Amino acid sequence: MKDSANPPSIVFGWRRLYTEACLMHSSIDCIAASECNSQSFWKKSVGRLDHAIVIAGAPGDGRLDLILDTIQKIQQTHLPTQIRNEDGQSHLNDSLLRPREVSLRVNSHHEIPLLSRPPSFSTFQSVSSLSPFVLRGHASHWPAVADGRWSSKSYFKEIAGQGRIVPVEVGADYRTDSWTQKMMDWESFLDYLWPSETGGSSSGEVIYLAQHNLFKQFPELSADIVKPDYVYCSLDPPEFFPHYKPPSNDDQLVSNVWLGPAGTVSPAHTDPYFNVYVQVVGHKTVWLAPPTAQVAMSAFPDPSSSSSSNPAQNHENPSMSNTSRLDIFAASDCDADGMIEFRRDVVPHAMSSVLGPGDMLFFPPGWWHAMRSEAVSFSVSMWF
C-alpha cells in the first residue's frame, strides 16, 4: 500500500538504518566480547542479524552477504553445530506424513485439471492464462524431494546453525482476533514440527511459517529446488486481471516457503501474480475458484473503496479485501452467512485436488484459492 506520509526513499532509509545498527551491534560483539563463552549471548547476536534480514530486508549493496558472513563467523567461533540423533526423530515418521482421509471434492464439483505431460515453454505461454492445472511428480527430481532432505530435522539444523530465528504465524486462522505473529527460534520451530513421542509442543498453539523467503536467510536451501522454466515466462495479463504486473524485484520472481503441521489452513483468498506451487513434503488439499466467483465469495470490504469488484485492485491495496469470510473447508451443509450463495454460485465452478510430494500446481492471478495441510507439510510457491 502506498504511504504518502512515508515516501519510498524515507522507508528505505529507515530500513537501511536498522540494518546498519544490527550489523554494528553484532560486529561490536565479535570485537569486544570475543572471549565470551555464553551461548545465549551469541545466539542473541545471531538473532539480531536475522532481524535485519526478516524485518528490514537487509537493503544496501553487499549488506545481505555481510550479514550472512557475520552469522557464519559467530557460529563457527562460538556456536559450533552439534547434530544429534534426536532420539530417532531426525526424519519425519510415517504417522506425521500420512495424510488424513480427505474428500477429493471439497465444496467443489470438479478436480483441478491433471496434465499427462508437461507443456512445452511455447505451449505454456499460449494456454497458461486460461486455467489452473496440476503436474503430478513434476518436481520429484528436486533434491528437496528426491533425497528426502527436507523431511530431516538434522539437515535443517545443520543448514542453519545455532541461534537463527524465523517469523511465524500463531493461530489457526489469520482472520481471527486471536491470530498473531512472532519471531521464533528456528530450532524450537523444528522441534515443534518434529514432536517427540511424549507429545511434542505442549502449548496447543498452531504455528505456521507461511509465505516467507527462507532462501534469503538460508541460501544453501536454494540448491534443493529447481525453478521450472515456466516462472521465467513473460505472460500477458489475463482478461479478468488487466492490470497485472509481475513482481517488481530484479528477477520478477518471488519465492516463498510454507512449513506447518497437519490441519494448517490458508483461508480462501486471491493473489496478484501467476503462481507455480510445489508440494515438497506431506500432502495438502487445494481448493480453487475462478475470478468470476468474486461476488459470492463474501470478501472482506475494501476500506479504501465502497465498491471492490475488480480483484486487480488488491495489487495496489493489499488489504483483507482479497480474503473471503467463508470457511471453505466447512461441511457442505453448513448454513453460515453467505454459504447459500456460495453453494449456488461458486461450488459448481470450483475445483480441488490433493497435492503430494513432487506435485506442481499452476494457477493465474485473481483465482480464489484455499489450502489445508493433511499432514506435516512443506511447500514452495513461486510468484511471477
From TrEMBL:
Cross-referenced InterPro entries: Cupin_8 (IPR041667), JmjC_dom (IPR003347)
Residue ranges for the region (Disordered) are 299-322
What residue spans carry the Polar residues bias annotation?
310-322
**Cross-referenced SUPFAM superfamilies, in alphabetical order?**
Clavaminate synthase-like
Q: Where is the JmjC domain?
A: 207-384
Which top-level group of life is the source organism from?
Eukaryota
From the UniProt annotation, give the residues forming the signal peptide: none
Gene3D superfamilies under this entry? Cupin
One Pfam entry name: Cupin_8
Q: Which PANTHER family does the protein's record reference? A: HYPOXIA-INDUCIBLE FACTOR 1 ALPHA INHIBITOR-RELATED, JMJC DOMAIN-CONTAINING PROTEIN
Protein name according to UniProt: Clavaminate synthase-like protein
Organism per entry: Schizopora paradoxa
